[in-house]
Amino acid sequence: MAKDKSLIREENGVMYKKAKTWHIALSMMTGAGQMAFYLLMNGATYIGNANFGILVAVTGLIITGSRLLDGITDPIIAYFLERFNSRFGKVRFSIMFGWLIMALSTTLMCNIGPKMDLTGGVGIAYFILCYAIYIIGYTFVSIAGQINMSILTNDPKQRPTIGVWSTAYSYLFPMIMGVVASAVILPRFNNIQGTAYFGTYNVVAIFVSLFFYILACIGIAPYDIPENFEGIKSADSSDAKPEIKDMVALIKDNKELQRFIVAATSDKLAQTIGSAAVVSTMLNGIMIGSMAISSILSAAAMLPSIIFAIIGARIAGRKGSRAVMISWTKICIVMNIAYAAYLLFAPTQLVGGIFSGNITTGAIIMAVTYVLFNFGNNAVKMVVSVATSHLRMDVVDYEMDRSGKYMPATVSATYSFIDKIVSSFGATIATLCVGFIGYTTTAPQQGDPLTWGVRLMTVALMIGFPIIGWICTLVAMKNSSITYEKMEEIQKNISDKKAAQMQDQHGYKNNEEGKLLRAL
C-alpha cells in the first residue's frame, strides 16, 4: 500500500494506521455477498424436497447435523489461511475461492441435480455432499470477512466504524434481495417454490454475490499484503507463522479470548433462544394478537438500529470496547426488566386489535409503548453488538503483543466454532420450554388463548435468557484488562517490537521517518 501520511494518526506517542472510508465500505461487502447465498439456502428444506424428494423432516435433520461440520471446518480452514500466502493475497483468495465453492455446490443442488433424477438414498447422499461443499465455501468467505476487520486499521477511533458498515449491509441487502425473490422471481413460477424457482434464484444469487465479492476485493486489495500478516519474530525463530501449538496456546493461555468467547457466546445463545420462531409466534401472534406487526416493526427498526450502530461506534472509539460493553449491557438489562413488566401486566392484545379496526385510546397507548420498547431494545443491543465486534479485533492485537503471533483467522474461527455449537441448541431449548406449557404435539399459533403460562414463558425465553446472557457478559468483562488505555499500550508495544525487529533486519534508525514507515 502506498505510504500515505494522511492514513497515519498519532495519539499519546502511538502511531495508528488508518484506512480510507471507501475502502472500508467496499471491504465489508463480503457480508452482502454471503447474504445472497444465505437467503438462497434458507430454502434448503424446499430445495431438498422439490429437487430430490427428501422429506422435510429429514432435510431438517441434515441441516441441523451440518452445524457440526460447520464448526469443525472453522479451525481447519483457519490454520490453512494463517499459513497461506499468494500473489493474489490471503483475503482475496479466500473470498473468491469461497465464492467458487459455494457457486459450484448450489449449482449442483439447484440446477444440475434435478436433471439427474436422484431420489431415495442416492438423492439424500447427493444433497448432503452438496451441502457439505457449500459449508466449506461459506467458511472460507466468513473467515476472510473477519480478517478484513483486523487488517484494515488498528486505529481505535476508526475500528468501530467497520461494524457500522457491516450492520448497514446486513439490514439493507436481505430486505432488497427478499423483495427481488418474492416480487420478481417467485411470480414467474406461479408463486411456487419449486425446482424452476430455485434454479433461477441460484443464478441470480451467484452473479449478485460475485458483484459484491469483486467490490470487496477491490476495497481490501491495498491492505491484503504479506507485511500486514507478519507476526513478531523472536530471536530464536526464523518463522513467525502460527503453528498448531500456537493455536492451542492461544485458546489455552489467552484469558482475554476466553472472556470474549464467554461474553459473546452467552449473548448469542440467549438471543437465538429469544428469536426462535415459536417465541415470535407467542409474542406477536398470541400476546399482541397480530403476526403482521412483526414484519412491520422489523422493517421500521432498520433506520434506528443503523443510527445506534453509528452512535455505538463513536462511543467505542472514545472509551474502548470493554467500557461500552459493560455500560450498555447494564442499560440492556434495565430496559428489558421494564419491557418484561409491560408484557406481563399490560393489556397487550389491544395492540393487535388495531389491525382489526378496534382503535381506542388505550390501544394507541399500548401500541406506542410496544413500538418504543421494540425500537429501544434493538437500539441498545446494537451498541453492544458493535462493541463486541470491536473487542474481537482488540483480542487479535492482544495476542500479537502476548505471543508475537498474528492470528486473526484463528481468533475468529475459535469464537465461530464455539458459537455455532452453542447457538445450535437455541431453537431446541425454546421448543423444549414451550412443551412445559402444553405445546408438545402442536406449535403455538396465532389466535391461541393468552394464558399466564404463555405470558410467563414468552417473557422467560425472550427476555429472561438474554438477561442471563448479559450477566455472563458483565462477569466476563469485569476482570478483562482490555481497556482503552491498555490497547494504547499494546499498540505501542507492537510498534516498538516491530521497530526493533526492523532495525535488526534492515538497520532502520529510530527516528520519525522510521516510525512513519513502520506504521504504514
Tell me the layout of helices and strands:
Blueprint: E1 8-11, E2 14-17, H1 21-27, H2 30-41, H3 44-52, H4 56-83, H5 91-112, H6 120-152, H7 159-185, H8 195-220, H9 244-253, H10 255-274, H11 277-288, H12 292-300, H13 302-319, H14 321-345, H15 349-353, H16 361-403, H17 408-423, H18 426-435, H19 452-478, H20 484-506, H21 512-519
Antiparallel strand pairs: 1-2
What is CATH's topology name of the largest domain?
Growth Hormone, Chain: A
Distance between the termini: 8 Å
Shape: globular
Task: From the alpha carbons, calculate the radius of gyration and give it in angstroms.
Answer: 24 Å
Order of helices and strands: EEHHHHHHHHHHHHHHHHHHHHH
CATH architecture of the largest domain: Up-down Bundle
For the residues shown, what is the average pLDDT? 83
* Percent of residues in beta strands: under 5%
Fraction of helical residues: over 70%
Number of domains: 2
CATH class of the largest domain: Mainly Alpha
* Total of DSSP H or I helical runs spanning 4+ residues: 21
Main beta-sheet annotation: 2 strands, antiparallel
Strands of the largest sheet, in order across it?
A: 1-2
Number of strands: 2
**Uncertain spans:** none
Structural class: mainly alpha
Structure characterization notes:
By secondary structure, the chain is mainly α. The protein has two domains: 21-223, MFS general substrate transporter like domains (Growth Hormone, Chain: A, Up-down Bundle); 244-482, Growth Hormone, Chain: A. Helix content is 75%, strand content 2%. The protein has a two-stranded antiparallel sheet. Strand 1 (8-11) and strand 2 form a beta hairpin. Helix 10 (255-274) packs parallel to helix 17. The model has no long low-confidence stretch (mean pLDDT 83).
